[in-house]
Amino acid sequence: MGLNETVSAERLHIGFFGVRNAGKSSLVNAVTGQDLAVVSDIKGTTTDPVKKAMELLPLGPVVIIDTPGLDDEGELGAQRVKKARQILAQTDIAVLVVDSTRGRTGADEELIELFEEKKLPYLVVYNKADLIDWEPALKDNEILVSAVTRDGIYELKEKIGAFAPAAARDKYILADLLKPGDIVVLVVPVDEAAPKGRLILPQQQTMREILDVHCTFITCQPEELKQTLSDLSRKPKLVVTDSQAFKKVAADTPDDVLLTSFSILFARYKGSLQRLVEGAARLSRLKDGDKVLISEGCTHHRQCNDIGTVKLPNWIEAYSGAKPVYTFTSGTEFPEDLSEFTLVVHCGGCMLNEKEMKHRIGRAVQAGVPIVNYGIAIACMNGILKRSLQAFPDILAALEGNPSSL
């Protein structure tokens, strides 16, 4: 990824759905202007979702997703269908591709019901217009195209582009907490868990946003924080830390300097901070045998001192005095049914788009299961959650009636 490219989690996700051999892959290739997907007359050629980041005006940076056929058969087919349904959770705009020589199928109607149930904006695209000699009556959200002759492809892009919001909602990592000239200290541990030679995505995005609002950031490791603060000629407005260093950083940060973590900032950025803070109250009430799901949105090589599978369980048991039973998931794997769990502990979700993160939180809420993210859980277990939320008085005010969360 180039330095100036928009990361996938920040792009609108456009999913192409439909039954096998409706021409989804051909249509995706026509829309993207490149051979993104393998095309064949054999049903079920697309076996896994295929993603491509691109620019689509007037929407701007998007991710186009080609999904397997939703009428696939057999055990392998069921797995493909499951993958396609998972894509729905991260889709911002859905495109249903219908074979115009066959018309809508029962599977197509089921998809439309799913789109409407999820309040997902969608288009119905009748493909293979070159193979019919009649034109169907079309609704406003329907269009007739040919992926082969490219007829209607420009108009399809225009219809997709019409879903562009009139004005993007204000959405900041921390820019709204700052004024020009403020100093922010970023505490970034460099240990065995840190990627070699680079910073992780939330750190990069936070740095860029600080620069965008004409502020200054200084980066140090946890053991250097006290000296770094001492060397500054004036106090920083904010200290932001990696959650794993929360305890030491809180001890070294003066009480009159705002303190928070990257994980907490990103919980707010994706619109779920209050719900995740409310979930922290369950940590102190865990009992032996309670089932706890620890989930990460990305996949990576697990190390011997991994935060998700090693550190968090140890901290949870020390804090709660209980011995829960843990289930670990990563990447796109997230249980459909959460009702068996007492608590869900999720990563910061930096590699998930907002739609997917809210979908996972909504699934927990629907099952009546509290959910908390790593940074909020760590702050809670170190007794500094209220301290780490002082930059967000609206969240503190909303939680006054639930002091056990703090």
Biggest sheet strand order reads 2-3-1-4-5-6
Question: How far do the termini sit from each other?
Answer: 39 Å
Please give the radius of gyration in angstroms.
Answer: 24 Å
- Helical residues, percent: 25-40%
CATH topology of the largest domain: Rossmann fold
Low confidence ranges = 37-47
User: What's the architecture of the largest domain, going by CATH?
Assistant: 3-Layer(aba) Sandwich
Instruction: Tell me the count of domains.
Output: 3
* Binned strand content: 15-25%
**Structural class per helix/strand content?**
alpha/beta
Task: Work out the number of β strands.
Answer: 14
Mean pLDDT: 86
Characterize the biggest β-sheet: 6 strands, mixed
Number of helices: 14
Write the H/E string, N to C.
EHEEHEHEEHEHEHEHEHHEHEEHEHHH
Brief write-up:
By secondary structure, this protein is an alpha/beta fold. The protein has three domains: 8-161, 3-Layer(aba) Sandwich (Rossmann fold); 175-265, 3-Layer(aba) Sandwich (Rossmann fold); 273-405, Rossmann fold, CATH 3.40.50.11410. It contains 14 helices and 14 strands.
Q: What topology does this entry show?
A:
Elements: E1 12-18, H1 24-32, E2 50-56, E3 60-66, H2 74-88, E4 93-99, H3 106-117, E5 122-127, E6 142-144, H4 153-161, E7 183-187, H5 201-212, E8 216-220, H6 225-231, E9 238-241, H7 246-252, E10 258-261, H8 262-269, H9 273-279, E11 291-296, H10 307-320, E12 325-330, E13 343-346, H11 354-367, E14 371-373, H12 374-381, H13 385-388, H14 393-398
Parallel strand pairs: 1-3, 1-4, 4-5, 5-6, 7-8, 7-9, 9-10, 11-12, 11-13, 13-14
Antiparallel strand pairs: 2-3
